Model the fold of this input.
Amino acid sequence: MKKIVFFGIAVLMTAIIFGLAACNNDLDDSSNSGGKTVVSIVITSGPSKTVYEVNEDIDLTGLVVTAIYDDDSHGAVTGYTTSGYDKTKTGKSTITVTYENKTAVFFVTVAINEGTVLMMDINGGTFTMGTPSEITTVTETRERPTRLVTVNGFYMSIFEVTQAQYKAVMNGADPSNYKGDNLPVTNVSWFDAVEFCNTLSMKEGFSPAYNIDKNTVDVNNTSTDNQNGAVKWTVTLVSGANGYRLPTEAEWEYACRAGTTTLFNTGDTIATNQANWGQSGAETPTGPIAVGSYAPNSWGLYDMHGNVQEWCWDFIMNGNSDDYYSQLNNVDNPLGRASGDRRAGRGGHWNTDSNNRIRSAYRERSHGNRNSYDDAGIRLVRSITMVEIASGTFTMGTSSEITDVTDNRERPTRQVTMNGFYMGRYEVTQKQYEEVMKTNPSQTKGDSLPVTNVSWFDAVEFCNALSVKEGFTPAYNIDKNTVDVNNTSTDNQNGAIKWTVTLVKGAKGYRLPTEAEWEYACRAGTSTLFNTGDSITKTQANWGGSNTGPVVVGCYESNPWGLYDMHGNVNEWCWDFIMNSDNDDYYSQPNNTDNPLGRLNGDRRANRGGNWSTSSNNSLRSAYRERSHGNRNSYNDLGIRVVRSK
Done:
């Protein structure tokens, strides 16, 4: 992780009202302090720093803890202890302060910093999007009907983009009506926002998320508004890009709700001391305020209600009867309408007099070409395509002491050292595969389902094609005219393909993981049978026929390193040769301990992770070594996860 340089607000003090945040806990047992009994403690001054980078130690400078005694006196105390801070886990953390058996709490946020923007790692999941018709106080039909929506994980900035940040990227430009470095940037059109995203991406070495064609009018933009030059550039998403972009409405609402189902992430009500709203009609409105001035939601995101509304990717129609929500197929990572006369905004703003417009589900619509809105700004997201896996050493295989595991090809165990690499957060989806290969061979169809029915040779071809598409050096030399003498398979299905495939030394393109890389990443520091412990249930992974086939990638909890579906869903091809016999002897060769590449020859190719159709969780174990015919494309439970060398 890089040093935090968040344009002057790296140690921004969040305006948590500590009198409200301090939860007194009067225990039955009491202790005396100076002859007096401590009745309770409160946080009278929070720590100066409340936002941290992952792996950063907590700093209690500025924290003042006050004891309340049984004689109604009070005073600041020392000698308290704190607990609850996990520097490895992103999100909002509750820190418990304990003194004389009494407790109070305060909150801090731990975020990811891979550039100059503090981001929160938002795990993928399914939520109810929209507002139920039973809530009669809400009349906007464009939020209905509700539907269960699944979104993949993503990074989201914990703050709205500030004016200081915008100026640093856009050559000093600051269009905001209300000025202040730590205020959110405003008076930016939707087109300004996507340009900012691309410029910041290039500045930080990420691949831009948008193709912006300023010379072609977007035929899907039906706006007739003429302000600001009636800008109607054609803007399209770049598949596989990891750069900054605007959130979709689905991503925004999912992150705002943070697991809640109420009107606001604070409950069914929200007050003006919980968010910046209600200034409409004020004689001297103060406008937007410094980002992070109110408590974050439970996922550590600030100002999701109020301050400024935030541009989203989606088209939207101006009328209340926008029908996008009635299209029931839009349930997996929906991108919004194909066309429209407005762009969506979310979160409400300081200038509204009704909290109706800052609800989690409220869908604002604004002219994308206008830069006159002093209550509209930007929040950033980035797609998480790859997870950085740090180098390390682990015990590979299964111990002989575990007698209920009989697979000798996992033994003996050995200490294996791995260089760092990048691994796909998810299994390759059918949409990703089809965008690259122009075909979808999967038996069970679905854009967000993992691609299946791909041979090992299909998988390495996909890796090379994806590398070329994204500008990386391909990882493989594929010679289709030479039979690989190391491939001892006698299987005749699918043309009995036995091309010669070799690794390109030093290439940074996409490739299949080695078995060692796969197991190291799956374990994620664990030494148990599964990364969930010594057992795994059907609520933790897709296996045992609990579903009729593969499910949308990322539907289950990730492992500790943020990788999804390492157990179950579909098996995943690895680079390694393997023998069909249970007595494959590769593990008994003592020299294979540093970045091992597997056997030099074999009649099968290894794959890992288990799949949806298996009846036993034995094949889901972190160390389990499956073997399949590399030439076959008939497996509807076998897919792809990609890696890249650093």
In short: The two ends are 15 Å apart (CA to CA). The first helix runs from residue 18 to 21. The first strand starts at residue 32 and ends at 33.
